[in-house]
Amino acid sequence: MSERAAAGGRTVTLALDAEGGDHAPGEIVAGALAAASPDLRVLLVGRPEMIEPHLAGADTRHVEIVPSGAGISSLEEPARAVRSKRDSSIVVGARTVVEGRAEGFVSAGSTGAMLAVGLLVVKRVPGVKRPAIVTVLPGGEAPVVFLDAGANADCRPEHLLEFGILGSIFARRALGLREPRVGLLNIGEEPTKGNELALGAYPLLADPAGGLRFVGNVEGRDLLFNKADVVVTDGFTGNVALKLLEGTARALLLRVRDAARRDVRSKIGGLLLRPSLTRVRAVLDPEEYGGTCLLGVQGLMIICHGNSSRRAVANALRFGAEAARRGLVQTVQEELGRGGGR
Amino acid sequence: MSERAAAGGRTVTLALDAEGGDHAPGEIVAGALAAASPDLRVLLVGRPEMIEPHLAGADTRHVEIVPSGAGISSLEEPARAVRSKRDSSIVVGARTVVEGRAEGFVSAGSTGAMLAVGLLVVKRVPGVKRPAIVTVLPGGEAPVVFLDAGANADCRPEHLLEFGILGSIFARRALGLREPRVGLLNIGEEPTKGNELALGAYPLLADPAGGLRFVGNVEGRDLLFNKADVVVTDGFTGNVALKLLEGTARALLLRVRDAARRDVRSKIGGLLLRPSLTRVRAVLDPEEYGGTCLLGVQGLMIICHGNSSRRAVANALRFGAEAARRGLVQTVQEELGRGGGR
């Protein structure tokens, strides 16, 4: 894989769900047009009559429409919808990966449906027990790889070990870290702290046989403070944590905004500070981090926030192209895809 | 209880662990002196020779020293330390409650040791399965009662129902809400979302037989946005969430501070905005919320943050006196203490 990782700007083709997300298809198509280049071809999957108006007047040399039906709503039961709606954009998009027409699939549609097509259409890497949603958090000094962000609500200790391996591969391949430090999200620093799951996972993560650079427990208060490069937890705790982080950031920035409207003095202060504060918001903005992906399946699957703007979509496509060039999925297949044993 | 709740400023006596916390005994004693009044007597539990120097020159009419040995460190195994160190400040303080010398006990020492003395010395209210740590989060419009913040790392669905009942009592008695809305922390809004625990707890919480005003699932992103007045979860998720909230707030405020140092324009803006921003910090400051308590035991047990300042200690004492006057523990005994059955 190292030659491949070093190959730089080879052309990557990615499929994009033009029917998925709150602002589909307009913002999705605009994001594709912003990211598409000679090095990044984008297959727009969706109803042509919905997509074409948004292509009018644009440079369409590096995009192509792959016709499909509509998307799958997040209100539908994902597995059932994926099985019955073979024509939906999310199933057709996933099939472009299976058929080798694209190296990856990007969608801002239902996370549940992406998870279902990942398992049912793209399929697990043989040997991987639990594909996980990997996300990148804005640590103070460097990004923090965090998983599982919601694919597996109930986990066993061996799944957390697998997440440690998947997260380490992600940190190496997608973020370029050489020897990522792995931590276990827990309610205390000592190995004797935690619920049954954490107590069971700790020795597995610490065992040299696992091949991880394990640095111990990471408490919630330290998650953003770079105590570890990769932090693992079950998909329930991970999803609650990710959404809480988002909610806390929103609550705080709303309060800072209100503070800057309190009186004339504060208003002037707020105006002067605004350019710098905009940069604070950018650091915390999930749209800047294109890197939420379902790892452990036989293709690159990138999940965008439902309310993704064109900028978020373009960032996700660029992230996906880079991850493809660096052989993220191939590395998972090489390191975990040995038909089990762990 | 209503006569008692209406009794207003009757004198309450609380014990305070003068040996617990990062800044003990100086800040602890200072907090006691700030809060003590004719309506609030404080028993300072600790080594007299450590406490006395901090009382020099102060008005000590409403404080009294109750001699004990040193505290229990958070590095010690809590249950073992509580059993073997009968002379420790935390055991002696808890005993003042059992003996009726104080109506409650406040400590900034080891949370694990507080939990252990709660269960082993103060003891559960008969009929309560799992005493829980109740905390108050800074919601946008109103406070949010959140539990379990760490007493029970592994829970069963019926424990979450009990937390709903305990949390509702807290919201009524300590915050004065008439019919608190109860929510379940979960990874989706639909009743079909969640891990096994949440899926099992949902119907119990929704069952009218439980007597709760249940409003459904609350996602992490909505925790601070007043979708419910009381939000329940297991002690693992709750502890991770609470500490993550603390960490995210710290990370964000650090970034706002850095933004206000970037250039001359931002520095001036930051200076003008500072008074308003200080108020933002105060809203998010756990020291303003004295109300973290272990609920479900036969006495008022208030747990302060380890790095509590005198202000935090004084706020906790005032909160404790008010909770005692409003009959918080008595209400738990009346509503849950019927020897089981639920």
What do these coordinates show?
Two copies of one chain form a homodimer. Chain A is of the alpha/beta class. The first copy, chain A, has two domains: 1-128 and 296-342, Isopropylmalate Dehydrogenase (3-Layer(aba) Sandwich), CATH 3.40.718; 132-289, Isopropylmalate Dehydrogenase (3-Layer(aba) Sandwich), CATH 3.40.718.10. Chain A has twelve helices and eleven strands. In chain A, strands 3-2-1-4-11-10-5-6-9-7-8 form an eleven-stranded mixed β-sheet, sandwiched between helices. In chain A, helix 5 (89-98) runs parallel beside helix 6, helix 7 (157-173) packs across helix 8 (196-206) and helix 9 (235-259) packs antiparallel against helix 10 (264-284). Chain A is globular, with a radius of gyration of 20 Å. The two termini of chain A are 23 Å apart. Mean pLDDT of chain A is 90; it is low at 1-7. At the A-B interface, helix 9 and helix 10 of A face helix 9 and helix 10 of B.
